[in-house]
Amino acid sequence: MSDTLLSFEESLEKFDPAMGLEVHVELNTNTKMFCGCPAVFGGEPNTQTCPTCLGLPGAMPAVNAKAVESAMRIGLALNCEIAEWCRFARKNYFYPDMPKNFQTSQYDEPIAFDGYLDVEIPARSGEGTETFRVDIERAHMEEDTGKSLHVGGATGRIQGADHSLVDYNRAGIPLIEIVTKPIMGSREKAPEIAKAYVAQLRELIVALGVSDARMDQGSIRADVNLSLAPAGSGGLGTRTETKNVNSLRSVERAVRYEMQRHAAILDEGGSILQETRHWQEDSGVTLSGRPKSDADDYRYFPEPDLVPVAPSREWVEELRGTLPELPREKRARLQKEWGFSDLEMRDTVGAGALGLVEETIGAGASPQAARKWWLSDMARRANEKGVDVADLGVAPTDVARVQELVDEGRINDKLARQVFDGLLAGEGTPDEIVAARGLEIVSDDGALGAAVDKAIEANPDVADKIRDGKVAAAGALIGAVMKEMRGQADAGRVRELILERLS
Ligand code: ZN
Ligand code: MN
């Protein structure tokens, strides 16, 4: 059964959206949060476990100091206060991939609280950017769950599966959960702000070097809370929480979808069920999950097996000194270095291509060439495939190499596009693709001369004009030669040959 949706415009006429974003970041520490098991991605199932992360009787946890340090650096970068004293708490629930039957998390005493992130979005005036401040409620430490694998069904989901297997390698990997305060006043920009917040939070995490920050591998996962209230009321409606939205594009789409779905229900006089929902990447809809529990239902209580965390003020200040250049400052610096206009910079950031462009320039391409490829060809191809440009599978070094081949005159822009086709098809490196597909531009006079003679013969009237001194007419003959040689002729040399023959 598909949901009824109100148009985006009409939902805004009648309602104001409020959002709450919860982002889980998997830290890249060597070991897990409360034991010495390796915390690396992708090992054979259940090879990275011990009595502590399996919740066996008598096992005692100990806090990973590196994870506490990363948590504090994230908190400081988000302009948060750092707790002088805080504790872990048990969040009790049954979940098959959590062997302890509780998650060790933080409850009313998070390590970091009361911060903000200034998010840059395209200005409503249409020119330049504007800043939207997202207030941060808290950033707290917790551990990840294991993973269930549902076997035998067509979709890999629990529905239709014969049986399920559990992999506890991920159980106990350190997580930082970053929770915003309700984001109000975003209006028609709500989907865009949600996406920009997650994108810019991700940039910050990358700059801090505390996580792989790979949304496609789940090392950053966003949950999107959304509610609507009657337009202008200033209130908060009943919210839904859409879980594990794992691409930037999906964050934007999920917000837009839930706004339109809520609006349709409320507009008919219905009420919203407080529940979790699951984003469906393929169909672009959310599906009902479970009724959302209130915090009380988890029966939180302080973790008795762990000592409180009380970071000294000296340690906090020392960590403050390790904060990198913040992404916003970095963007301003790069824009100046690259000579990009506000619009060029905005489009680059908006396409999620800033890091890619930066790496491409770092690999030797000019800023304008790097921007051109990522924002035209790559952005279009990513859009066609429905993925973020960063997940396209084309490396910045490859783009830089393609541009180098253009600069060397060995291919032109048109042929470069065929090299990108080859890269996406997994045909090898740019050089291998040029060789295998025979894309190199021909500048050998023998082959070019034959094509030039053929073009002159086929276009006697054009040839006469050139003989009469109308050199501009050479363009038509160059075009004919290019066509004959499938775009692979050296256009400059072709022109010279034509003029030589007809002068
Ligand atoms: Zn362990
Ligand atoms: Mn959590």
Describe the structure concisely for a colleague:
The protein folds into 3 domains: 8-59 and 119-295, no CATH class; 327-437, no CATH class; 445-502, Arc Repressor Mutant, subunit A (Orthogonal Bundle), CATH 1.10.10.
Mean pLDDT: 92
Bound molecules: zinc ion, manganese (II) ion
Count of DSSP-assigned helices? 16
Radius of gyration, in angstroms, nearest whole number? 28 Å
Give a description of the structure.
The protein is of the alpha+beta class. It folds into 3 domains: 8-59 and 119-295, no CATH class; 327-437, no CATH class; 445-502, Arc Repressor Mutant, subunit A (Orthogonal Bundle), CATH 1.10.10. The chain has 16 helices and 14 strands. The strands form 3 sheets. It has a 9-stranded mixed beta sheet. The protein has a 3-stranded antiparallel beta sheet with strand order 4-3-14, with no helix packed on it. A two-stranded antiparallel sheet has the order 7-8. Strand 5 (112-122) and strand 6 (129-143) form a beta hairpin. Helix 3 (190-208) packs antiparallel against helix 4 and helix 13 packs across helix 16. It is elongated and about 95 Å long. Zinc ion binds next to loops.
